[in-house]
Write a structure and sequence with these properties.
Largest sheet: 7 strands, mixed
Distance between the termini: 41 Å
GO molecular function: methyltransferase activity; transferase activity, transferring alkyl or aryl (other than methyl) groups
CATH architecture: 3-Layer(aba) Sandwich
Enzyme class: transferase
GO biological process, one term: methylation
CATH superfamily: Vaccinia Virus protein VP39
Structural class: alpha/beta
Strand content: 15-25%
Strand order of the largest sheet: 9-8-7-10-11-17-14
Number of helices: 10
Organism: Enterobacter lignolyticus (strain SCF1)
Number of domains: 1
Oligomer: single chain
Helix content: 25-40%
Protein name: tRNA U34 carboxymethyltransferase
C-alpha cells in the first residue's frame, strides 16, 4: 500500500502547510477505505516489486532521466520494464530510466519547454500542480529549483506511475502526489506557484476552478494556466456537445481573450497570454507505451484543422497571472 507518512512528516515542519494536517490524513484514510480502483492492488504491487535504485546521474533539468554507474543487467532491465508495463497506458512523460525509455503518449517535455521561459524563477518555491497526471512536470519543476512540488490527481493509475518513477529516482522526497481533486483542498494560501495544465475544460464551473486555484496561492503568488482555447474575441466560448476530440466531460473552451477576462473577474492581476500552440500529432500520439487511440484518431481525416465532431482542432494557450 502506498504510504503518505513521509509527506505528513514533511508538511508538519512547514509553518505554511502544517494546518493541512487537520484534514488531509482523514481524507486519505477515507480514500484508502472506500475508493480503490479494481486494479489498484495489482498496480501498487508492481510498484512494490520495483527495486529502489539510487541514480549515479540524475537529470531533472533537461529531462527526467536517471543512470546507474554500471549498466543494469538484461535481466534487471527486463524485470523493471515488465513491472512498468503493468502500469500502462503511460500518457505524460517521457522518462529515461537506466537505459529504459518510456515513450509516453504526450511529449510533455515540449509543453514544459514552451512554459518554462515565462515562469518566475522556481528556485526555492513551494509548488502545487493540479491535475498533475503521472507527475512528469513536477520532476521538471524540481529540476528547475523548486523546494517542494505537490501534485494532486484523483486518477489512481497516475499515482502508481508517479510512485514507480519516484522509487527509481532514489525515493526522492522533493515531489509528492496526493489522490485528491482540487475541490477537496482547503484554502491553504500556501503555494508560491500553482499550475493547472489541461484541467480547466473538464470543469463544469470554470470560474469556480479559478477561484479554487487562487485560494491555494500566497499573496503575490503566480498562477500558470494551460488549457484548450478557441480563436475569437473576449465573448467567444465554445460549449461542445457530447464529446470534443472524442473526450467526454469537456464543458467550456473559451478564447484566450475570454479566459484573460475570466481571470481578471476572479481578481487576478498582470494576466498575460504567453503562448498559443496547435497540438500536433507529433506531440500527442500512439506509442508502444500507450497503444489505444490518440490525437490522429480524434481529428477529421479529410480536414486536420477540425476534430471528428467538426469543432476546431485542439489549440492550447498558456496564461500567467498573479494573485495580488
Amino acid at each position: 500500500m502506498i504510504d503518505f507518512g513521509n509527506f505528513y512528516q514533511l508538511i508538519a515542519k512547514d509553518p505554511a502547510l502544517s494546518h493541512w494536517l487537520e484534514t488531509l490524513p482523514a481524507q486519505i484514510a477515507a480514500w484508502q477505505k472506500a475508493s480503490l480502483h479494481g486494479q489498484f492492488k495489482q498496480w501498487s504491487r508492481s510498484v512494490e516489486f520495483l527495486p529502489e535504485l539510487q541514480p549515479w546521474k540524475l537529470d531533472l533539468l533537461h529531462s527526467v532521466s536517471a543512470q546507474s554507474e554500471s549498466p543494469l543487467s538484461d535481466g534487471q532491465l527486463k524485470g523493471i520494464e515488465k513491472l512498468l508495463r503493468n502500469l500502462m497506458p503511460w500518457r505524460k512523460g517521457p522518462f529515461s530510466l537506466y537505459g529504459l525509455d518510456i515513450d509516453t503518449e504526450w511529449r510533455s517535455d515540449w509543453k514544459w519547454d514552451r512554459v518554462l521561459p515565462h515562469l518566475s524563477d522556481l528556485t526555492g518555491r513551494t509548488i502545487l500542480d493540479v491535475g498533475c497526471g503521472s507527475g512528469y512536470h513536477m520532476w521538471r519543476m524540481v529540476g528547475a529549483g523548486a523546494r517542494l512540488a505537490v501534485g494532486i490527481d484523483p486518477t489512481q493509475l497516475f499515482l502508481c506511475q508517479f510512485e514507480a518513477v519516484r522509487k527509481l529516482l532514489g525515493n526522492d522526497q522533493r515531489a509528492h502526489l496526493l489522490p485528491l481533486g482540487i475541490e477537496q483542498m482547503p484554502a491553504l494560501q500556501a503555494f508560491d506557484t500553482v499550475f493547472s495544465m489541461g484541467v480547466l475544460y473538464h470543469r463544469r464551473s470554470p470560474l469556480d476552478h479559478l477561484w479554487q486555484l487562487k485560494d491555494q496561492l500566497v499573496q503575490d503568488g503566480e498562477l500558470v494556466l494551460e488549457t484548450l482555447v478557441v480563436d475569437g474575441d473576449e465573448n467567444t466560448v465554445l460549449v461542445p456537445g457530447d464529446r470534443y476530440a472524442q473526450m467526454r466531460n469537456v464543458y467550456f473552451i473559451p478564447s484566450a481573450a475570454a479566459l484573460k477576462m475570466w481571470l481578471e473577474k476572479c481578481g487576478f492581476v498582470d494576466v498575460r497570454i504567453v503562448d498559443m500552440n496547435v497540438t500536433s500529432t507529433d506531440e500527442q500520439r500512439r506509442t508502444d507505451w500507450m497503444i489505444t487511440e490518440s490525437l490522429a484518431d480524434f481529428l477529421d481525416p479529410n480536414d486536420r484543422t477540425k476534430t471528428v465532431e467538426g469543432y476546431p482542432a485542439p489549440l492550447r494557450a498558456v496564461i500567467i497571472a498573479r494573485k495580488p
